[in-house]
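Archive transcription. Copying these from loose printouts into the bound notebook so they stop getting lost. Printout 1 of 2:
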Amino acid sequence: TVSIVIPCYNTHAYLNQTICSVRGQTFQSIQIIVVDDGSTDPATIDCLNHLGENVLVIHQSNQGLPAARNAGFAAASGEFVQPLDADDWLEPNAVEKLVNVLKQSPEAGFSFSHICMEGEGEGILTKHYNFFEQLFLNQLPYCLMLRKSLWQTAGGYDEKMRHGYEDWEFNIRLGSMGHFGSAVPMPLFHYRVSRDGMLLRTSNKIHGEIWESIRHKHAEIYGATNLFRLWHEWRRHPSTYPLWIYFGWLIIAQLLPSRTFTALFRVLRRYSHGRRVTASVTET
């Protein structure tokens, strides 16, 4: 069985599309869990009350996205669990493909796919797994298929990270425990890019502070000796950017105040992989 966990907080515009994409999966044994994180919007509440009998709805006070995901994972009956936000959706064969990877590769901690950007972003983002790169930039989609036992072993998402990047920290924690990801080279996950989303609205504005807190929490990983060891281990694996540039990126982050570093990050983000993919699609 696979459990799909869908957090929802005053977001209903695309919720039915999200759930329909789960109901339409070629993999049939799926439990759908929607976690209402204290919604107050009447339209959202009405939508949640009419989702159908085959959707488990969990109500809780507003505690933030990490806590909502954890509540869904805790209630999941599936061997495998996948988080899915209430405005994103999956290709019909997504669950089948992602589960097959984990069954065929027991050494893989989790699986993920390429990303099809929607909304204010367009195009296909190619995603690889490189643990060294993941220490510096969040290059993985949040929508991972992982064993519930692994979520339990890792201790779940950090519920203190209510301003975003909780998936980034969670993935770093998994990697530090030796649990790495395996990619399905297909765009199975549709991600809606929006200025109103948490990433653009909140996380990017305090990127420096959040990454600094992640480095502090995992100080042993970011030690110079360990970083060079990991670079040597992962340098031949596919990556979005050349791995050597991250040493300079870390030095800049350590020298600049968090706000200044965040401002630099937001300027450079204009030339990110996602922005370049969107630009090439638009030009075409």
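Printout 2 of 2:
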Amino acid sequence: MAKHTIQRYHIYDFSLKSAAQHDNPFSVQLSATFENESGEKIENLPGFYDGDGWKIRFSPTCEGVWHGRTSSDHPALNNIVLDDIECVPNENANLHGVLQIDPQHRQKFSFSDATPFVPLGFECDWLFSYHQADAERCHRHIDLIAEHGFNYIVTNLYAHTGFSTRQNSDERPVDPAYIFSPPAMYPFGGSNDEPNHSTLNVVFFADFDRLMRYLHNRGIVVHLMIQVQNKSVRWPARRSPEDDVFWRYVVARYQAFCNLVWDV
């Protein structure tokens, strides 16, 4: 009998621990392969470090019992048999699986359950910072966007300036309650002014998780700009080891969200 039950297209985090010390736990290579009792397989899902251990984030694509096993360059995390997951029918009418090109109509979009998707987009570049400042009010505004028919949000994973100012274009003052730059948290260690790119800020990503889960449950597709270059962000050097760790981490942390469009 499976130890955990999860609805189809929903998300479950497997938590893994290791007592060993690491020079940089964000650089540990971790993945898992899952197989459904029907034979369907999902291979090499990447894991990520989350401050007090590692996680494998999994979203089942079909019903039935799933078995999982890890692979890692760290012996304590390698070849672990994960708890079985029983996937049951999805009860959230907003979720329809992975967004994809419609296999029958190559110039259209649909979800993996064949529900058609016609994007009506709303650009909220600063949404992550809004959520940091006031998650409850941010959720109300997401609800308002959804209630007006928008189903697709364009947003940044992080930006430092350039998405809100103290003056409108016609020089009217902006309500201070809606100024969200610079953000309260930086995705790396240190700050944007004095960054430590050798580590990542798991508190920042935990807050972004909550934002993503809210958008996911509302069925809003997220067009995620992972790294923008015109918002005064102190990013690691292009193609440096620190830059590579950042990109891999973002993919590992959010690959299970079926409502995601990657913008690289």
